[in-house]
Structures are given as structure tokens and as C-alpha cells.
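Dear colleague,

Thank you for sharing your sequence with our group. We've completed the structure prediction you requested, and as agreed, I am returning the results in plain text so they can be pasted directly into your records. Please verify that the sequence below matches your submission; if there's any discrepancy, let me know and we will rerun it promptly.
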Amino acid sequence: VRQYVPADLRQALGYMGQTAGLIDDTLMRNICLGQGELDREHFAAMMRLTGIADFAARHPQGYGMSIGPRGEKLSGGERQSVALARVLLGNPKVLLLDEPTSSMDTMLEMRLVRNMVELVGNRTLIVATHRAPVLQLVDRIIWLDAGRIVADGAKADVLRQMSGAAA
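Please find the predicted C-alpha cells below.
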């Protein structure tokens, strides 16, 4: 890691934690927080992918709507969508996602996962999740239980082990 320029590492890595880190401002300002110049097409694509385009279109002020302190005017799933969009706008080569869909309803989660399959294709994705649909995005699973590795391998192999353990 020391051989890399810190700015290059920051640009290559995109991290989404369990809390969105939203501020008392507009939806647009929260999405673009920390972003430089944005490509309109990439922005529109990421808004569709994360579902933000839909909920912004339903609000009279659209992207100009106030989201309140810590995003309190948004649902938990909408807050997660904003946090994910913020990461994806940076177009990182490596995505580190911690429970990216834990507060999303089933429909939004399924849509997001379906849309992300193509996006993740040529990137490295490291994801911590308890949600089965998110596993569609990975090739390898490291299954932890009480902080210990229970299984590590190809997705199909580990899923077989998991289903056997649940029986």
C-alpha cells in the first residue's frame, strides 16, 4: 500500500458504510457531496440504478427537496440509495460495501441488485451482507460466524454448505 499515491488510492476505492452520513440540505447536495465535476449521463445512470430518480420524480421539488438533518425526511432505504449513489458517482475500481441494502424494501433491493450486476462486472466488490439477494453480485463468499471463517470458496460451494448448515 505504501507504494501507491494516497490520492490514487482514494480515487480507486469507494466505501459505503452502514450509516449514510447525510447533511441537512437538498437531495442533490447530499448526492454530490465530495464529488468534483460530474458527467450528466453517468449521473443520470447512477440515479436510475440506485432508484433515486424514481423517488426524486415523485417529489414536487425533485432533487431540490430538503432531506432534513441526517436525511430524516427519507426512508432508511432512500438514505442507503443516496450513500450508494455518492460512492458510485466516483466510479471507483474497488467497491467496499457494508450492508448496502439492509434498510431497503425487497423491491428496491431486487432492482438495485439486478442493475448492479453489469456495473460490478469489471470491478472488485467486497461486500458485508446478511441479505441473500446481494450474493448475486459476488463470485466468492467468505462466511463468518462469531468472527471466525466457517467457509471460504466459490459462491455455489459455500451456498451449498450454508444450506446444509441451515437444515
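Summary note from our side: The chain has a mean pLDDT of 91.

Kind regards,
the structure core
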